[in-house]
Design a protein that fits this description.
The chain has 420 residues and is of the alpha+beta class. The chain has helices spanning 3-20, 27-41, 49-56, 60-68, 74-89, 160-172, 184-197, 209-212, 215-223, 269-276, 355-363, 366-378, 389-412, and strands at 93-102, 112-116, 121-134, 139-146, 205-207, 228-232, 237-240, 267-268, 282-288, 300-312, 328-333, 343-347. Strands 1, 2, 3, 4, 5, 6, 7, 8, 9, 10, 11 and 12 form a 12-stranded mixed sheet that branches. Helix 1 crosses helix 2 (27-41) and helix 2 packs across helix 13 (389-412). The protein is globular, with a radius of gyration of 24 Å. It starts with a helix and ends in an 8-residue tail after the last helix. The relative contact order is 0.15.
Amino acid sequence: MDAAGFAAVGEKLDAFAGQVFSSLPRSDQRATGGLYLRGLMLDGRRKSMQPMAARLGVDHQRLQQFITSSPWDVVPVRQTLARLAIEVIAPEAWVIDDTGQAKEGTASACVARQYSGTLGKIGNCQVAVSVHAVTDKASAPLDWRLYMPLTWDDAAAATEGEAATVLARRRKCQIPDTEHHHPKWRLALDMIDDLLASGHRPPVIAADAGYGDTTAFRSGLDERGIGYVVAVKGSTSAYPATAVPVTPTPHTGRGRPRLPGYPDPPSSCKDLIIAAGRKARQKITWRQGTRTGPNNRTAAMRSEFTAIRIRPANKDIPRADDGSLPEQWLIAEWPTGTAEPTDYWLANLPTHTPVATMVRLAKIRWRIEHDYRELKTGVGLDHFEGRSWTGWHHHATLATAAHVFLTWLRLTNPKAPGQA
């Protein structure tokens, strides 16, 4: 957005910033927050502090102090942003995902050689987990967690010497002593819990196989009474819904009594879908895209899917007293012309849920790549050059604020500047 664009929406932006930064205790902090927000949205290729300060006509030290060392709390700011995002988007789902930022060196908080889907490989990077409010028309982040690899957790060090080295590294990056390594799925549940505590509840959770393949994540959603459609691998084990556990003969000897169980080993999700056969497949259109062609003049996103009832059989899934496993949906995409299914999802949604609805929710994750692209290239999420834990969280929160404002502007005033 250029200077003329800001002039056209100035009152709206001031009102938005007034809400977002109302928890900041000092007027100079609130003013600098609004200034930084403008810097992130102002036209310019690089959204790090010095280029932004030059475009804004201010001393970059003011921006740097606000982001890296000013002691304002991101939690109430993110709570306000989450409320505003949910109000304007009216989400059909919350989507869990993570994104990586390539970094040079080892000094930035939580940087390590680790896998990043953004990079498509193992690389030197930071990884952040996020939860987004999503429809097919709009989406925005609701919260973030910076993932901490084990190498940054002094509590996980093998020796006192290693722990001291890690602790010194943490202190240089201002990492609080209360922060430790947690798996990404745990960070996702923590964010969901915080949003639940703020009075928000997801219509349904969608996530890729990095989360869906983790039984503890799915069980955590079940325990919270939250519906989900999550991707899994075709090798995930399961029984047909019709499988029945067998009660063992009465125990007469020593040792632990045997519990009811299924007499046969489980199959894989892939084998269960193949066994369902071609007759179970149905053609479904889940949304209208933008690319038309001679054979698809309406840009329909369409493929063939199979949906069957199954009982996932991972070892740590709780069983009923009779030994039975909970029944769920298994959805698989099997495009015409392919030898086998290409994608699989598990869903704990009611038995009467239309297959087309589950497919649309399974596919709704496409919006997140749109979010990450806008956050990184549009409002500079990846442009933070500081090294501190505090600085990263401050910058990510301000980038989220810029994204939420632009999303609100697009949905409420499509003709506003910057909404082409």
